[in-house]
Specification:
Strand order of the largest sheet: 2-8-7-6-5-3-4
Order of helices and strands: HHEHHEHEHEHEHEEHEHHHEEHEEEH
Mean pLDDT: 95
CATH superfamily of the largest domain: Type I PLP-dependent aspartate aminotransferase-like (Major domain)
CATH topology of the largest domain: Aspartate Aminotransferase, domain 2
Helix content: 40-55%
Number of domains: 2
Bound molecules: 4'-deoxy-4'-aminopyridoxal-5'-phosphate
Number of strands: 13
Radius of gyration: 22 Å
Low-confidence stretches: none
Distance between the termini: 61 Å
CATH architecture of the largest domain: 3-Layer(aba) Sandwich
Shape: globular
Length: about 375
């Protein structure tokens, strides 16, 4: 290096890839002291006896050792608990975000495209951008009233034909819109796609349908799930389910110890008590219906149907409503500015009854004040 002093920032800009320099990091706001309804977390703690069992397991964990690089028992527990068809396997990720990245790395041949629908989970586009993969976003329908954010099959099939994507992500239900596309349309997309289609079922616990039973019917289908929304966001565990012809290749890209000792142990325990988490999910689904109705009763709000653990709604000034809620101690997600179709949209995660009531009261106050 020359003797002329250079700043770290000029060095970083000169040496790093443009795709990285152009990136805006995924923003996680400070939620201290606020009712946290911004990140699709399960609001419920585990029952005390289960927490005590977990404390013992964690206390006895061999954290001086690397984790099991291939936790066969945990994988089997996942396959059994979630009823995976025989012959299908799972690949574990440090959250499903990591699996999206792994898929992009694996499929990114020169010129290859990743396709998704817009608006959807922002990490698809972001990961395509920083892995240098061509990204194609097909807009969902807008300005069609109750049909807003539904699939535009004509445009989607046209885009598949034109772009020949090697990787398609379909969030089922979609984030941030919450809707579940008709399964027949998803099947038509899988059949039309020349490449791999990943049905991302992050919100499976709150939805009325799944593509897991169809895994054996389509050689180009994988289903991705996460345990984050079910009550294990802090553990970071997601998985891809499908044929081992795909998973065996992807396995080579997985970093050897991507799922830590504590995650393996605690997730194993929680899967043995899957019923507790599903019960919490049932409660969340009931409260989603109540919250949907309450939001629908506020005339200045347009709320969209959801099969996930959150609701998308539109107001006349999302920035003002977001600020007003924050001032009143409630943090939700402001989607305004994130995508043109999400102008003045906000997304609220279904919390406990009490949290939802506080949110609704704060929303009413904010709207009355700004009228
Ligand atoms: N897919 C979708 C559709 C999501 O909304 C999210 C989280 N917001 C993820 C994947 C990633 O989840 P995680 O990394 O926590 O497993």
């Amino acid at each position: 290096m020359s003797a002329i002093p250079v700043s770290a920032s000029s060095l970083a800009s000169a040496l790093m890839r443009k795709e990285v320099l152009d990136l805006h990091a995924y923003h996680v706001p400070d939620s201290r002291g606020l009712i946290k309804l911004d990140a699709m977390e399960n609001p419920y703690a585990l029952p005390l006896p289960l927490r005590k069992e977990i404390a013992t397991i964690v206390g006895n964990a061999a954290i001086n050792r690397y984790p099991d690089p291939n936790p066969a028992a945990l994988k089997e527990e996942i396959c059994n608990t979630l009823g995976l068809p025989p012959d299908m396997e799972v690949l574990l990720g440090n959250g499903s975000d990591e699996l999206i990245q792994l898929l992009a790395l694996a499929m990114n041949k020169p010129g290859a495209a990743m396709m998704s629908l817009e608006p959807s989970f922002v990490m698809y586009r972001m990961i395509a951008n920083y892995t240098g993969m061509r990204y194609v976003g097909v807009p969902l329908k807008i300005n069609s009233g109750a049909d807003d954010f539904s699939l535009d099959m004509t445009e989607t099939l046209k885009a598949i034909k034109r772009e020949q994507p090697s990787l398609v992500f379909l969030a089922y239900p979609n984030n941030p819109t919450g809707n579940l596309y008709p399964s027949l349309d998803v099947k038509r997309i899988i059949e039309a796609a020349p490449g791999l289609v990943v049905v991302d079922e992050a919100y499976y616990a709150f939805a009325s349908d799944s593509f897991i039973p169809h895994l054996a019917s389509y050689p180009n289908l994988l289903v991705m799930r996460t345990f984050s929304k079910l009550g294990m966001a802090g553990l970071r565990l997601g998985f891809l389910a499908g044929n081992k012809a795909w998973l065996g290749q992807l396995e080579k890209l997985r970093l050897p110890y991507n799922v830590g000792v504590l995650t393996q142990l605690v997730a194993g325990k929680l899967l043995a008590h899957h019923g507790v988490l599903l019960q919490q999910a049932e409660q969340i689904k009931m409260d989603r219906a109540r919250l949907y109705q309450q939001l629908g009763e506020i005339s200045a709000v347009q709320v969209y149907p959801s099969e996930a653990n959150f609701l998308l709604f539109r107001v006349s000034d999302a920035n003002e409503v977001f600020g007003g809620l924050r001032q009143r101690g409630v943090l939700i997600k402001n989607l305004n500015g994130g995508h043109p179709m999400l102008k003045n949209c906000l997304r609220v995660t279904v919390g406990t009854r009490a949290e939802n009531d506080t949110f609704i009261a704060a929303l009413r106050e904010t709207i009355i004040q700004s009228a």
